[in-house]
Amino acid sequence: MWTHRRSGQKNQRNAHDHREPYERDRTRVIHSPSFRRLQDKTQIIGMNQGDFHRTRLTHSLEVASIGMSIVRNLTLNPEVNQLCGLLPDDDLMTTISLLHDIGHPPFGHGGEVALNYMMRDHGGFESNGQTLRLLTHLENSYGSYGLDLTRRSLLGILKYPVNRQRVIAPELPSPSMPLKQRIRINDWLPPKAYFDSEQPYIDWLFSSFNPSDINLFQSLRKEPKQGTHGEAAYFSFDCSIMDTADDIAYGVHDLEDAIHLGLITRAQLDGQTFRHHLTQTGISIKPSKLLDKLFSNIIQERKQAIGEIVNYLISSVRIASVNPNFENLLLRHNIHLIPEAHMLLEDLKTCIYRHVIDAQSARIAEHGGQNIIIHLFEAIHSNPSHLLDLKSRQVYENAANENTAYRTICDYIANLTDSGARKLHERLYGINFTHT
Prior knowledge:
With 436 residues, the chain is mostly helical. It contains 23 helices and 4 strands. The chain folds into 3 domains: 21-235, Orthogonal Bundle (Hypothetical protein af1432); 238-359, no CATH class; 361-429, no CATH class.
């Protein structure tokens, strides 16, 4: 059931292909063009100095490493022996982790907001929704089935298992506002959901669940109200491992980048609350010594401090039932961090957001990226038969309706790398948007 593919194929190559299904999934991901494009998509906005910082590709590799370590640590816990059959193997965990950011457009979340604005009347845009669309449709290495991944791999990347119409806010900003206002980051944040157009793939994915599990799995934690989007209540067990690994990579490894580039100082991270949370953990190094190492000019000491924090967080993961009414164990259980580890990680994530993501230099770069996306969309929409590549041009010309035509332009732009978008914009407009 979980190793089934939508195509129905069980052995793509021949009888001599002895790879397991999830190993084949991992190989398909590694060799896909969309995965390779992650090497030219920045992980933290504005980090273009040198060659030290992480890209979305290296970030995804780190998420995979942390995810596998979480699974292996859980196998050592005698309290979860009865659930060990539930744990994903290395290939499955790697596949899900490598894919978690593959739907991101150029310029990260700023690009996501800009595309959602341009698609506001045609189905919207959201990076996780684009991930599902890429894997099941756009990455056509296996024909009309996309990458034709196994059911469990697809379930693991489905972070928001509800469609857009279920969660979109009933009241959206007026598009008649001046341009500089209508794409403000807080105005056009997309609802976290899959696109309505992908429903047939969701129906196949959920066909192994009973109706009551499907209804519960697609329930909302928060209903949409006025100008606020709704929120999905659940994701699968494998997805919870990936999500936790992603948070650890963001909170710790991205902190390492920020420290190296001087974007976060010791004074900005250090404080009474942070030290208190450190003392509540099982980290053996004293807070002062850990901070000394974390901000040391000696890379070996920084790596030791980073490793101490990551190892502590990985070993602080537990399995818990999110809702006993689920019949399927993959839906009933998730992982979570113990409270002390959760608080420490939240400190780190808050520090990165405040001093890196929300810094003026990053917001300026974000605004520039948004302008590039909007200009590209407007130019291509004005003359798609000439400005789209040959493959997208054919899809556009065969579009059944306006929504599908708009989606084709959106897919083309979302698939660009950061530098690819900049170069295309410069060729169209003769303007070089430098980024900081």
